[in-house]
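Worked Example 4.2. Consider the chain below.
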Amino acid sequence: MRFANMSSWQIGVSADDTLPVFALWLRDIEAIAVPPAGLVPGPLDCGELPPPSGEPHEPGLGEEWLAWWLSLVDRRPRRRPLSPPDDDAEPAHDTPDPLGLARLPVLRGHVSRRWTEFLHWRTAWHRAAGTYVDRRRPGDNRTGEVVREVERALGRRAAPFHLRFVLLPVRDDRILQVEADHYLVPERVYWSAGWPAWLRTVVERVA
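Applying the procedure from the previous section yields the following structure tokens:
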């Protein structure tokens, strides 16, 4: 979804992105121990999850999961050896992310074995809770209203800017900044009464 004044500003909001939700789902059901990192959110907020597979966790699984997660949410270049997406190594064609998992052999097996199960789970979840489009409140235009309020306070139109918000269905209250114009936002925060006030501070900085 995009809110925009084509001559000046653009705010993009995306949700229900398949691979990020799958990565979090896999982390949670398998209880993968992930190294501390600033862009890793809390657990999924999607009701009951399937049981773990009971497979042993090979050394390096948490590090590989983190490398994959960062490749999904932050496209800035990284050092190898864990630097997906990768078009030099043999693609992981048995997974939903052949380039992203090419250099992650420990994680790759877990992904390929549980991918189909995740798709069935996601379908059931969407039937029960609705997709983001279903959950979106009719007539919700808080984003555009915030920009207009800032413009009125400034006494001018906003300077050109672009913001991107990726909504995640997680039990977390932290908004994680990927880049100056790119944020990971818990969906519960986006729908909260405090979202317009937080958004206003960001718009005031860029407008």
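The radius of gyration is 19 Å. The longest strand covers residues 161-168. Compare this with Example 4.1 before moving on.
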